[in-house]
TrEMBL record:
Organism, as annotated: Actinomadura napierensis
Gene3D superfamilies the record matches: TolB, C-terminal domain
Residue ranges of domain SMP-30/Gluconolactonase/LRE-like region in the record: 33-248
Lineage: Bacteria, Bacillati, Actinomycetota, Actinomycetes, Streptosporangiales
Protein name (record): SMP-30/gluconolactonase/LRE family protein
Lineage top rank: taxon: Bacteria
Amino acid sequence: MVGSEARYTGAAPVGLAQGWSLDRLTPPSRLFGANGLRTGPDGRVYVAQVAGSQISALDVDTGELETVSAQGGDVVAPDDVDFGPLGDLYITEYYDGRVSARGADGTTRVVRDDLPGANGITFHQGRLFVNECRIGGRLMELDLDGGAPRVLLENLPMPNAMEVGPDGKLYYPTLGGNDIWRIDPDGGEPERVAGDLGVPDAVKFDSQGRIVSTQVGSGEVLRIDPRSGERTVLATIAPGLDNLTFVGDRLFVSGFTGQITEILGGGRTRAVLPEGLTWPLDLTVDGDGVLYVADGTYFHRYSPGSGLQVLGMLFSPGWPGYIRGVTAVGGGAFVVTTSNGQIARWTPARGEHRVLAGETEPFDRLYGVAVAPGGDVVAAELGTGRVVSVRGGEVTTLAAGLDRPMGVAFGPDGTCLVSESGAGRVVSAAGSGVETVVDGLDTPQGIAVRGGTLFILDAGAKALISVDLHSRTPITIARDLPVGPPPGVDPKPLKGLPPFSGPQGLFAGLTAGPDGTLYVSADADGSVLALRKLDREG
């Protein structure tokens, strides 16, 4: 992958049925977000991507990217990386609680698989240190020969990316404590170095021995003198910064949205890689025709001419959780499903949400959500094969025994329609059971209804299909869409880790605007597409 190419290249360009046009509203993403960074022996920056289970090597001068560990391979949800003394790449696999090592020949071995929330990783004089980014996390030295870890500290409030300083002490930030600490790698009492920060999630050192730390909450890149405590804001980018690395004296930082930024002098920055969407997942259009995009740890409004605007993210006040399904309900409010198993009503402008269902007994992998004509909230629960209906806090089962239900929509007569991704069909669901509306599909996910037409986004077939609800005749509108996993790739499950996220999974969402525009979550290449039916005169 070179230059401005996307992270995904389809086998063929998108094909459209006659009378349809396609516009790409947002550019393709080059990465699946950007998490841990480390400069390799070859001078390239190695970028871990949790959501995409991918590690890429970046030439910071040319922008050239090489996929080092691809989606569908042995490494799952890599969060941080470092190089061992023999050149092997050591990787923390956050959701699987593992540390793995990847040799120059591409072979991978598991070093340990019993480290829940394994995150920060660093070598010092041939010794490997790892911590767990979770409530009650541990800081440990791992035995490279397979012996039991040596626990330096435990019950830490979400420690993260760390490094040994010039004084020989191991410096680590804590997200839950909003501070930076240090400890002698050989043991002893920890010492607080700095506090009241912007939620620090990484610590590295410059050539002058000063701490440089990204602040995920404030979006600042801070320089802190560990001797005097003096602080300098090197740059303010945006909330969601994740890690940093030096290439010589040049400083580069990563962010959740996949941007890699070089920090220059005087607060100036240079975009090495642009930001982009990590997935995206579901989409919705409000009564004014404004498009909104759910991207897991981010939620965006789209405006023609200005693109995506962040309305909320993981560290925003009132954030309801990792958003998978969404539908606009008026007044700037949305009903959302989260990967933590809750259905909530969320108003971003007010910074507040109210859980409608799943607070005490979370659901098992919620996906699409819609509001029935009578006001009931209906959602697909993939894990149990159910479609649930919520009214006044009471949950009832609208349909059960389905094979991986994902998308939900309502027909013009108020009938609930559900995409049954595991069975390759769309069904209507009622108290009396389910009826097949259309079958012979591959992996239908997002669905939408406009007038008497059902639209289906089939992620497996990479196609957008329309079905007249009277004749039930399917017509393919678009084929070879950049949705679903790459051809021949079977992505490993992303287990998630509360409180940041529950289990994650692909979901190619679909919605229709009041003017008939169909909006598609192109989750394979990280963009949003708009398909429109042309006027006959055009």
